[in-house]
Structures are given as structure tokens and as C-alpha cells.
């Protein structure tokens, strides 16, 4: 599924538009962008278009493109949704490097978290980041995620092992911080 339009102060979450697939092809070929992503191999335009078709049809994913400064800058999603246990795994990538460190990732994660709990009625969200990916960890923490552990030497990248920081946010904890 694609998620509906969620408008923040700085960033908008919305379904993809024509031309987005080509941007993703470019971003996933950029090692600076994929440095901290679990999947770091580029995709062809056809593969990216197939991915968007698949995810749009999926009943266990909710996916948005991110828009800021009048253009698509990345994507965020709620994946592997278990509708019985009410949990899912989240992820974000801002591929447009000129848009890093402007608060877009933090706002996107906050909007996504609210949507997951208030609209999808989920119980818990899980996520993770390379332990040295401070912006990702910080943005997740601001959205309510808390560390549950660290997988040691979990990813091999650039000639060395990297620990993987694991986090989750329970709806009951999040609700305390966001009273209606
Ligand atoms: C990780 C990512 C989503 C963060 O989004 P962003 O818009 O760049 O981050 P924000 O501007 O919202 O910053 C988040 C926080 O991290 C802090 N931060 C940013 N860069 C930092 C750095 N190098 N060291 C420490 N803190 C940093 C910011 O100050 C902010 O915290 P604050 O609000 O308390 O000041 C984005 O940079 C990205 O997509 N990177 C490439 C792909 C990736 O790593 N995805 C995540 C995979 S888990």
C-alpha cells in the first residue's frame, strides 16, 4: 500500500509520482547514501519500477515518498506488518544529500509513528541503524524509539564490522508522550 498524504511543517509524506523511480536508481548507486543501509547494491530503473508496483500492491507494507523543497527527496515506510500482533519494521532513506540535517528525517519519522498508532492501530514499531549512524538513531529516539539491544559485528562494510543498534517504540509509551 501507499500511505495517504501526511503534511508536516517541513516535509510531506505522499504516494510516488512519475520520475521518482529514476531518482531512486541514482540514489541507490551512491555509496554515501547507502553507507548505512542493509542493502547497498544499486537497482536498475526496471527493478525500481517493479519495486514500486510490488509495494503499492502489498498488504503488509505502507510506503511513502518524501517531498521537501518542491521535490522528492527520499522515502519512508512501515514494513513486514503483522496485523495480528500489531507490529512492524520501519525504515527511512533521504537520497538527496543536500536535504540531510535539515530536520526532514525527524519529522517524517514522527508523522509515520503517529500514523502507525492512530490510523493503523499498530501496537509496536521496530527499527535499527548502524551504531555509528547518529542522525538515524537520534531521529528515531525523538520519534519515541528506545534501544533494546545492539547486535555486535552485524554488518560488514568498508573493510570492517559494524554493530547494529536495535530499537522499538511501544504504542502505550508513545501515547503517554502524545496525549489526545
Ligand atoms: C538518517 C536520516 C534518515 C536522518 O535524516 P535527516 O533529515 O538527515 O536527520 P535530521 O536533520 O532530522 O537530524 C536528526 C538528528 O540527528 C542529529 N544529527 C544529524 N547529523 C548528526 C551527526 N553527524 N552526528 C550527531 N548527530 C547528528 C541532528 O542534529 C538531529 O538531532 P536534533 O534534532 O536533536 O538536533 C538521513 O540522513 C538519511 O536518510 N541518510 C541516508 C540513509 C540512512 O542512513 N538511512 C537510515 C537507515 S537506518
Structure description:
The protein contains six helices and eight strands, in the order ββαααβββαβαββα. It is an alpha+beta fold and 180 residues long. The protein has a single domain (6-177), classed as Gcn5-related N-acetyltransferase (GNAT) (Aminopeptidase). It has an eight-stranded mixed sheet, with helices on both faces. A hairpin with a 2-residue loop joins strand 3 and strand 4. Helix 1 packs across helix 3 (45-57). Coenzyme A (COA) binds at residues 33, 36-37, 74, 92-94, 100-106, 129, 133-136, 138-139.
Entry keywords:
180 residues; alpha+beta; Aminopeptidase; 8-stranded mixed β-sheet; 32% helix; binds coenzyme A
Class from secondary-structure proportions = alpha+beta
Report, as a whole number of angstroms, the end-to-end distance: 27 Å
Helix content: 25-40%
Nearest-integer average pLDDT: 97
Percent strand equals 25-35%
Spans where pLDDT lies below 50 across 5 or more residues: none
Number of helices: 6
Overall CATH architecture: 3-Layer(aba) Sandwich
Question: Can you describe this structure in just a few lines?
Answer:
This protein has 180 residues and is α+β, with helices and mostly antiparallel strands. It has helices at residues 20-28, 31-34, 45-57, 104-118, 134-142, 171-177, and strands at 6-7, 12-14, 62-68, 71-82, 87-94, 124-130, 146-157, 160-170. The mean pLDDT is 97.
Amino acid at each position: 500500500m501507499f500511505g495517504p498524504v501526511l503534511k508536516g511543517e517541513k516535509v510531506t509524506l505522499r504516494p510516488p509520482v512519475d520520475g521518482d523511480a529514476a531518482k531512486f536508481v541514482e540514489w541507490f548507486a551512491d555509496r554515501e547514501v547507502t553507507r548505512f543501509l542493509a542493502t547497498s547494491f544499486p537497482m536498475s530503473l526496471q527493478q525500481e519500477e517493479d519495486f514500486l508496483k510490488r509495494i503499492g500492491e502489498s498488504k503488509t507494507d505502507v510506503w511513502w515518498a518524501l517531498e521537501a523543497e518542491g521535490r522528492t527527496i527520499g522515502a519512508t515506510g512501515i514494513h513486514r506488518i503483522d496485523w495480528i500482533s500489531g507490529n512492524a519494521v520501519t525504515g527511512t532513506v533521504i537520497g538527496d544529500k543536500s536535504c540531510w540535517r535539515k530536520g526532514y528525517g525527524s519529522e517524517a519519522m514522527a508523522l509515520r509513528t503517529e500514523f502507525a498508532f492512530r490510523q493503523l492501530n499498530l501496537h509496536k514499531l521496530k527499527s535499527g541503524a548502524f551504531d555509528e549512524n547518529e542522525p538515524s538513531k537520534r531521529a528515531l529516539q525523538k520519534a519515541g524509539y528506545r534501544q533494546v539491544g545492539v547486535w555486535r559485528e552485524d554488518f560488514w562494510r568498508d573493510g570492517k564490522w559494524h554493530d547494529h543498534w536495535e530499537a522499538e517504540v511501544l504504542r502505550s509509551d508513545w501515547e503517554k508522550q502524545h496525549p489526545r
